[in-house]
DNA sequence: AAAGCGTGTCATTGG
DNA sequence: CACCAATGACACGCT
């Protein structure tokens, strides 16, 4: 079945390719997301798929729908059905294997897309990539230049010839499906170059530049601002530093004292580009540490505030309990006072020896300890006056 | 697929 | 005025 041969192709090819592991620094390995972006440009027809989930191993897979086109470019799409492995093995002729091996070779050449394309041009049927700038895109994007150009917009080289390569699926490419392994290889090599050099893989192709300063000014500066995963950035600076032959590691540049740092520029050995890069590296490194400290402080503040909230909650609970206790005591005292008051009142007698009516009179306790019997209306009017004074 | 988190970077600000 | 640390905002990758 077609799915069977698809499996076999994948196995044989990936075997070949995995034998020639392209080992990348861990920090340089494209992340899954990057791969998915690359994957977006895949087409449903014959295709090469960069499987960089384990980017040390380049995995080549052929989609089942049109793998015949890769295997045999002369077969028109849909005109031939390959339905079993025998057919496939016939199609998987030496020429195809050569192509595959050449791709592997190309990958061994540090993904030098130009070299890869040269191999293919020498070996295949002459079908060429419709890339207008094959001479400029991969070659002019050599590692050194990309790094040098980091601080110079003028050195940017666009990737117009590969529009859509990174941005997403481009239907036109399906028309070239049988065209190809080597197109795809070059294209993916190119994408890899982009990723390795300046991480512009997240940019639309027309903005993908080699060696351009990654900070885009103007209205696009936020959207297109260069950003990469944390693990990639440092090595990015390190590679730039190496490319410019800066005689210090990124760590040294960042951590050296300000005096040592200034001494770097005192002897005029450094070019403008080097100086600019060194300053940028130091600034980024310092800022990175500052951001880390800032976030730590922020977390500390949050933790402290959470502690404060907890303590205040506990204090509130405690005060509420105290308040309840005091209210209880006050009520108890009021009850006792009431009992005492009634008791005292029940013992009082007027001039005729009659009990005093508690609805008409009240007891008043003076500051000197003496007690008076006062008419209740007097007490009430005095209370009114007091309350009015308080309002004023 | 969406949300949340961690991180690096850039712009800005205040010391 | 230059420098630098601090910080808000943003984008990205990862879970």
Notes on the protein architecture:
The chain is mainly α and 392 residues long. The protein folds into 3 domains: 211 residues, no CATH class; 76 residues, Orthogonal Bundle (Transcription Factor Skn-1, Chain P), CATH 1.10.880; 75 residues, no CATH class. Helices cover 55% and strands 4% of the residues. The protein is built from 14 helices and 4 strands. A two-stranded antiparallel ribbon has the order 1-2. A hairpin with a 5-residue loop joins strand 3 and strand 4. Helix 5 runs antiparallel to helix 6, helix 5 runs parallel beside helix 9 and helix 6 packs antiparallel against helix 9. The longest helix is centred in the C-terminal third of the chain and has 76 residues. The chain starts with a helix and ends with a helix. The structure holds a DNA duplex (15 and 15 nucleotides). One of its GO terms (cellular component) is nucleus. Belongs to the bZIP family. CNC subfamily. It comes from Latimeria chalumnae (Coelacanth).
